[in-house]
Specification:
Elements: H1 2-39, E1 136-138, E2 143-145, H2 151-156, H3 161-172, H4 178-188, H5 195-208, H6 210-219, E3 225-235, E4 238-246, E5 251-256, H7 261-268, E6 275-278, H8 282-290, E7 294-297, H9 299-310, H10 315-335, H11 343-362, H12 369-380, H13 382-391, H14 398-414, H15 420-439, H16 443-456
Parallel strand pairs: 3-6, 6-7
Antiparallel strand pairs: 1-2, 3-4, 4-5
Length: about 475
């Protein structure tokens, strides 16, 4: 009997140890599953940027039929608009006196003539002006004197206003490095200058657009609706954040060491009472708690995260994600038909979609961290996700992301800035490029006007008065 009790006690100890080991392995398994899930996240199923993808997500095949190269069947032809008479510098009339087929003498007709235009560069597309300053001796002063250079010539330096504007354009829109700029001027224009000289021209161009930029910055707090986004960057190896604020008619960029809500308070003011379209980053939520601002969270970001649930290896989580995606796709089908449906009918359908989506959110929430996070977020921030229905604004922050794309491209090409003035140049020129695009203003014409006003002392051009 004593041996049996001893054996039972040993088995109980073994069972207890086995149970402890099972619990440890369960915890380890859960941790490994979460790690695998994080590693499987990419730009197509989360809010991660495409540049963070180790491998590109697989492309979805929409159609088995291979798309042919070139214009597709039924594609409307787009012809370039010819130059008007004011743009034509030289006209050559090609006359014909006899028929090229039979040799018969031809008679002039009143039919409209055929027009063919050709554009060509001139061999030297610039002029060099030399200012000669003879030396005059003064017996009274006992020294030589020369006539003063015109103020605008002294202020501009070697490059005139148009060339300064060209440097600014190529550096920004062309994403050229200073070395590439140097080679461009040497190879194409046969003008040999140093990279340091070109950096000074960019510095000068930055000063010329400071006033138009500040006007846009000052107008930001008056905008009723803004698309806001931010992306990381570098200044001489140090982390910097490039903020983008896109309004209805203009865009403002701002480079800051912080990614926090203090940047929003600094640029918009704590009393800002408009609507901000943004992602779910905590800085926006904190800013909304501090003031009067209201938020519209981006559905594109949320959909990517729900796609991650739908791709889960856990069947319950996957089914939950798929159910949400079906309801959301139905809502976006109605969104895309906004102009085809009477406003009152569209609103009624959108409110029904809202109810259906929230019903799916609350129905059978899986006991998984990612699924519970999505459900809690939508239940807590329901108004911030569906505000677009009544406010008449886009459901996504795609416009903000499109505007900030130029920053991402420039960061990849130039590897960031190296000084504080470089940050100021980038935020100013990005704002000019984006605003010109929004307002359909020629970028080069605007830059020339800015440089001219700086050199000749005129009133700088303004986006606000166009």
């Amino acid at each position: 009997m004593g041996n049996e009790n001893k054996r039972i006690a040993e088995l109980e100890l073994l069972l207890e140890a086995a149970l402890i080991e099972i619990e440890r392995l369960k915890a380890e398994n859960t941790k490994l599953r979460e790690t695998i899930a994080r590693l499987e996240k990419n730009s197509s199923n989360s809010s991660k940027s495409p540049s963070s993808d180790i491998l590109k997500p697989p492309k979805t095949i929409k159609s088995k039929r291979k798309r042919e190269i070139g214009a597709q069947k039924g594609h409307k032809q787009h012809l370039r608009k010819p130059f008007d008479e004011t743009q034509v510098d030289k006209t050559i009339e090609l006359k014909l006196e006899v028929c090229p087929v039979c040799g018969e003498k031809l008679q002039a007709s009143n039919e409209p003539m055929n027009i063919h235009q050709q554009v060509e560069l001139v061999y030297k597309p610039y002029i060099v002006t030399e200012y000669q300053q003879p030396l005059y001796w003064c017996n009274h002063c006992q020294c030589f004197h020369t006539a003063e250079l015109p103020l605008e010539v002294k202020k501009a330096g070697l490059f005139g206003p148009k060339l300064i504007a060209l440097v600014a354009y190529l550096k920004s829109r062309g994403h050229m490095s200073y070395k590439t700029l140097q080679e461009f001027f040497s190879d194409t224009l046969e003008i040999n200058v140093s990279t340091g000289f070109l950096a000074k021209q960019v510095h000068k161009a930055s000063e010329t657009i400071a006033v138009p930029y500040q006007e846009l910055l000052d107008k930001l707090p008056q905008e009723k609706h803004l698309h806001v986004d931010e992306t990381g960057g570098k200044e001489n190896g140090k982390k910097r954040w490039n903020w983008c604020f896109r309004g209805e008619e203009f865009t403002v960029f701002h480079v800051d060491p912080s990614r926090g809500s203090s940047v929003l308070g600094k640029l918009l003011g704590t009393n800002y009472a408009g609507i901000i379209s943004c992602d779910f980053w905590g800085a926006y939520r904190k800013f909304s708690r501090l003031g009067l601002v209201i938020l519209q969270f981006c559905w594109a970001h949320l959909i990517r995260e729900i796609k991650f649930l739908a791709d889960s290896r856990d069947k319950k989580v996957s089914n939950y994600g798929k159910r949400l995606l079906v309801a959301i796709r139905s809502m976006f089908s109605t969104i895309h038909r906004h102009g085809e449906i009477l406003e009152r009918n569209w609103l009624r359908r959108m409110r029904r979609h809202r109810g259906e989506i929230m019903g799916e959110v609350k129905h059978r929430i899986p006991n998984a961290k990612d699924a519970k996070n999505i459900a809690e977020r939508l239940m807590k921030w329901e108004e911030e996700y569906f505000r677009f229905i009544e406010a008449g604004i886009p459901p996504t922050n795609n416009l903000g992301e499109q505007s900030i794309r130029c920053v991402v491209i420039d960061r990849k090409v130039t590897q960031g800035t190296r000084s504080e003035w470089g940050n100021r140049w980038m935020e100013r020129i990005w704002s000019v490029l984006s605003t010109c695009k929004q307002r359909k203003v020629n970028v080069m014409s605007f830059l020339r006007a800015c440089v001219d006003s700086f050199i000749y002392g005129h009133t700088p051009p303004s986006f606000l008065h166009n």
